[in-house]
Amino acid sequence: MTQTTEVVGIGDRPGEPTIATPQWPGRDLVVLYRAVSVVLVAAAAGLLVWARYPWEYAEFTAAGLGAIAIGALWFVEPVAFTSGAARIAADPNVVRFVARPLGQRLLVCASLVFVLLGAAILLMLWSMAIAVDPTTGISAISFRSYALPLFGALCAVILVRTAVRARRVARGLTVDHLGVVAAWNGTVQRVAWDDMLSAGSGEGKMFGPTLWVLGHGARNDINVLTSVTGSDPAVLAAFVNHFRDHPADRALLSQPELAWERFRGSFAPGAGDVQA
């Protein structure tokens, strides 16, 4: 079932500050990713120089194409968030910030990995069948021809593990009357309001900007990527800090629209005099 969400922004009302994190990935990273793609293409072509048998040409070509495709899927991320905006799920009981669904990317990755893995195994079995030395009964296939099946098996294990973890716990950041909960890759991190020190954001160069929420102990800290929350981390940090500093407003967290309006209304002139 597709989960409906609403993208809400901040900064377009009188008195509201501009809270925004630079878009990620930036232009410099896009250039880097394109350079990596060129290197992968060159590496795939270089593998063909080592091939000595027809099946090795097929396997090395598949390995090169697979590496390029997987690199494109996992490194060239879609836009993780809209600068200065938050992505709120349509949940009637809590405020939940969620990323774009993983389903489509996992399906593409699964199709790619398992097709390559199946093709590699068939090619390996075929090459072993035709390369047996009749005098010794030992296959003359080189160890290099096992590279793609091993690579495919590793990718399949990682993919299955990611899919299982993604389905075990809904990814995203939940803010309710008890505190903040971050769920991603099967991991759940919690910080209660009474244990919270502050929230903030950091700009990551390789993996993207992050949201962090500090508790009284290091084990209670939250540090998640924007690919998990789907929202601008600077906006999320301001949202969390508002409800940390205004306990009376936390009752509104059971109604996402009212909670978001109270957060935005806190920047209006004289808002500090308004009672919850």
Automatic annotation (TrEMBL):
Keywords: Membrane, Transmembrane, Transmembrane helix. It comes from the Bacteria. The chain crosses the membrane at residues 31-51, 57-76, 106-126, 146-164. This is PH (Pleckstrin Homology) domain-containing protein. It comes from Leucobacter albus. The lineage of its organism: Bacteria, Bacillati, Actinomycetota, Actinomycetes, Micrococcales.
